[in-house]
Amino acid sequence: MTAHELQVWLRARFPKEDERCEWKEWRSLKSVISGRKGEDLVSYISALANMDGGCMVIGVQDGTLAVTGIQDFADYTLENVVGRVLGKTPGLPSLGLRFEELRASDTGAVVWLVHVPRHAPRTPVLAHDQAWQRDGDSLQELREDRHKAILAEHLVGEDWSAAIVSGATLSDLDETAIAKAREKYAEKHRTKAWAPHIATWGAQTLLDKIGLTIHGGITRACLLLLGRPESATALLSPQPAEITWKLAAERVAEHFHPPFLLTTTEVARRIRNPNIKLFPASELLAVTLPRYDTHTVLLEGLHNCLAHQDYAQGGRVVVEESSGLVRMTNLGGFFDGKPEDYIRGACTPSRYRNERLAKAMAEVGMIDKVGFGIHDMVLAQRRRFLPLPDYEDSSDARTVFNVYGQEIDANYTHWLMERTDLPIEHVLWLDRLQKGRKLDAAQVTELRRAGLVEGRSPKLHISAKVAVAMGQEVAYLNQRRPDVDDYKTALCKLLSLGPQPRAKVDALLLPKLQLWIPGLTERKEFIKELLKEMSRDGRIHNVGGRTRAARWALTDGSVPNSPQRR
User: Which of 2, 19, 384, 534 would give a disulfide with 106, using CB separation of 3.0 to 4.6 Å?
Assistant: First the structure.
């Protein structure tokens, strides 16, 4: 490849710097492999490894990726550099660390790609005796929340929920919960030839079949789902087996304990769920429905929190209710991929944080275990013409699931939900836009290409052709950036009545600008620049003093009803 072809190739594979990619225009390796802490190669390797790994591109211009090349390799070679880096980065897995050389055929410029593996479970990677992470364009010491998340990571083969609890017996289990487990298990396997025998099984046989006991031994998963509250609390201590429901606006809260097979329904009943009316654009009459879908969304979301909670951290599942929003939080980051991987229903989880608990919950109908749960929750909200559920504010240390029970913007939501032909990815991106959240450049480009949005980022708005099709012309015009000449005309009409102070100008224009510039400071700055521009054009001039003493007047010859067009 020529230098230009190499640049194009690099830009296609490493389009931006982030937590997985770093560009460096290092022409000499003499003091950058292991040099100034926080600025050298080993520090950046620590930062990449402490997230999900990534790649460093050395020998390119920052920003453009134009190939400049490494000109002084000092005594570093592809053969010795790996060992020397490993010696400076305690905790870095040797498997996966790889240096790759690319050479431009026309200029001979050499670029190194440094492939950095992800840290080993529960092992931060150090450089200069401390762990690093990326912060904007520079590095900083690993934040406490990320450090804790690494130390609490799941180990292969580890399953907190599968441990047998010493001293636990069948007498520690709730009989009503056992009966419900039998009913749900029989319902799930009703087509099997042996289904009629389920009713005759003893409790021990039933629990072994479900997976809640191991050869009669009571597991932690069994106590969570079927345990009597006082027994489960005592036997699982110091890990609290608890769900906390909270309604801050009314200063009320309640704690719920095992058996979670029964009590999660009680939690859902605590959530305020009145009927609401929606007015879809394709309907003549209002649609009346409960604010939340209790089974498909609320209970599925809550059960997912229980299945994926990192119980070893000693926390509880929290359900916070506010106006039109339910937020469910469990300890531990999202497990096995990212939420968006499961939106289409095509992704199947390969592992669970609490494998035995998840298997048992699937056996009694509490969760879906083949990857359709998130997909079904998204579709349920879409069919209800409400904002889609999301995982905003989640981190490596906790997973946050948000369920929306009211419209954010009636016009926009109706348009979004009525377009049933849209791909699910477009629906998700438009939903994020509706919530005022940022889209990346590629997503915005695709939405523009589909004619769904217009305007300049980050102030995107509904496109004109869709607005007219959906009868939303007024909403569209209110969201569009107005013509500056309209404000110049209004100001000229005011000044035609005589010289005016800035306060009168503000009184005229501030309310008009509020539709598209919400901030008062920004509106005043716009008016200031408008006055400057009209003054430079010779249309108005100051006949008073400076700043607050200024009084603006029309220049002779200016015609209010015929503003100058630029």
Answer: 2
Could you tell me where the DSSP H helices lie in 312-436?
Answer: 355-363, 373-383, 410-418, 424-434
Count CB neighbours of 5 within 10 A.
13
Pairing assessment for the beta strands 126-127 and 138-141 based on DSSP bridges: unpaired
Q: pTM to 2 decimals? A: 0.66
Quick check: bond before 238 cis, omega within 30? yes
DSSP 91-146: T--STT-EEEEEE-TTT--EEEEEEEPPPPTT---EETTEEEEEETTEEEEPPHHH
Q: Give the whole-angstrom CA distance, residue 330 versus residue 340.
A: 18
CB 475 within 8 A of CB 467: yes
Cα separation of 334 and 349, whole Å? 11
Radius of gyration of the chain (CA): 31
